[in-house]
Amino acid sequence: MYDYLIVGAGLFGATFAYEAKKRGKKCLVIDKRDHIGGNVFTEEVDGIQVHKYGAHIFHTNNKRIWDYINQFAEFNRYTNSPIANYQGEIYNLPFNMNTFNKLWGVTSPEEAKQKIRQQREAAHITKPSNLEEQAISLVGTDIYQKLIKGYTEKQWGRSARELPAFIIKRLPVRFTYDNNYFNDRFQGIPIGGYTQIFEKLLDGIDVKLNTDFFKERNQLENCADKIVFTGMIDQFYDYQFGVLNYRSLRFETEILNEIDNFQGNAVVNYTDNKTAFTRIIEHKHFEFGKQRHTIITKEYPIEWRQGLEPYYPINDDENNEIYKLYQNLADQEANVIFGGRLANYKYYDMHQVIGEALATVERELEN
Ligand code: FAD
Ligand code: UDP
User: Fold this and answer.
1) How many C-beta atoms surround the C-beta of residue 274 within 10 A?
2) 174, 211, 240, 338: which has the fewest Cβ within 10 Å?
3) CA of 147 to the centre of ligand 2 (A)
4) Is 366 marked active-site?
5) How far is the C-alpha of 293 from the C-alpha of 354, rounded, in Å?
């Protein structure tokens, strides 16, 4: 008998398990995959840490969360500065003075602001109500056409006019020559990969891999007083209010034995709408690797269907309405806690998941 059955050995499940164990609780963690770590999982291949589910860069503004994660690994000084490749033209991201200079030849912040103002006014946008309007209002039509529209519509499989504005607000817009993708105070990559963090979080805790909650639901529900569920909330409730949409990905990884440096950067985004993938990750650059070979991964967005991994929730109005119905049921559960990207149907980054897991444990075990 366990105090908690934790469904999912990802960041939410593992953090909850670690904190519950610290408070004397007995946990069983299950995951349907054959490894711990969820989407944060990294695996060493030929001496290079490969981010198996896409590039993961840890960043946070919260010192408590930075200190927390640093208990489990030493972080390097990696700063994410992705490059955009639009039909062979190279631009710096996020949108900053380097981008504006390359695009328009402007050299001062005032000139860049004026360009954007003119384009915003010409597009007659006063109150942006979708991603396209939000993007044009922030950076103008040129950047929208070259660096946002193609990438966004590939990534989400729908028109930028049907997507929520908040998605583009994840990216900073700066009038300084600063290519740091994040505004946060703390940022880095764990030296030696992320999986060590999960090994430490789950040390001394019972973990059963290759175990799908829904295949053994009755038996599993009876083995613990409470459940912490980090899978898909619509599946938990047997899709009774309908199926939530997600965006999935296909990763194509290649080991390039003859090449030591394929693209000169960890992340290169392909922002046109002809290239089928959105980005190429060159894993060694996350750790400033000096190997003679390299490993790259192309990321192809695909529509999610049952059986595929649900990587991104699609937080448009229609899906958010369905989610609210499930959330209502979840709020009434006395013995089930829902957490993480899938169960809360939220576009969380890692630091937010840790913050949420810590707050949940405190609510649960410190009152
Ligand atoms: P997950 O990692 O999805 O873990 C859930 C686990 O539950 C999975 O292991 C799954 O197999 C398991 N599970 C689900 N259903 C069942 C079931 N029925 N039975 C048993 N097990 C089940 N965040 C950042 O901060 N920085 C980044 O750079 C970044 N890049 C990202 C890039 C990509 C491509 C993606 C998809 C995400 C990225 N993220 C990034 C977000 C980060 O991956 C998430 O915040 C984090 O993984 C969420 O943790 P979680 O525990 O909620 O979910
Ligand atoms: N985006 C874009 N062009 C880029 C990078 C990002 O238009 O070169 C948009 C796109 O809509 C994407 C969103 O900004 O979904 C958020 O980007 P982020 O890098 O945060 O995406 P993630 O790493 O979470 O997939």
Assistant:
1) 8
2) 240
3) 10
4) no
5) 34
Q: Are 42 and 49 in contact (CB under 8 A)?
A: yes
Residue count (the chain): 367
Closest ligand (CA of 169): 2
Q: Which of 31, 153, 349, 356 is catalytic?
A: 349
pLDDT 10s digit of each residue in the chain, 367 long?
Answer: 999 999 999 999 999 999 999 999 999 999 999 999 999 999 999 999 999 999 999 999 999 999 999 999 999 999 999 999 999 999 999 999 999 999 999 999 999 999 999 999 999 998 999 999 999 999 999 999 999 999 999 999 999 999 999 999 999 999 999 999 999 999 999 999 999 999 999 999 999 999 999 999 999 999 999 999 999 999 999 999 999 999 999 999 999 999 999 999 999 999 999 999 999 999 999 999 999 999 999 999 999 999 999 999 999 999 999 999 999 999 999 999 999 999 999 999 999 999 999 999 999 998 7
Helices 350-365/63-70 angle, 10° precision: 90
Q: For the full predicted model, state whether its pTM sits above 0.90.
A: yes
Catalytic residue from among 279, 323, 326, 348: 279
Query: 130 C-alpha vs ligand 1 centroid, how far in Å?
Result: 26
Is any atom of ligand 2 closer than 6 Å to the C-beta of 168? Answer: yes
Q: Is 152 in the pocket of ligand 2 (CB under 6 A)?
A: yes
- Report the separation in Å between the CA atom of 202 and the middle of ligand 2, taken as the mean of its atom positions: 32
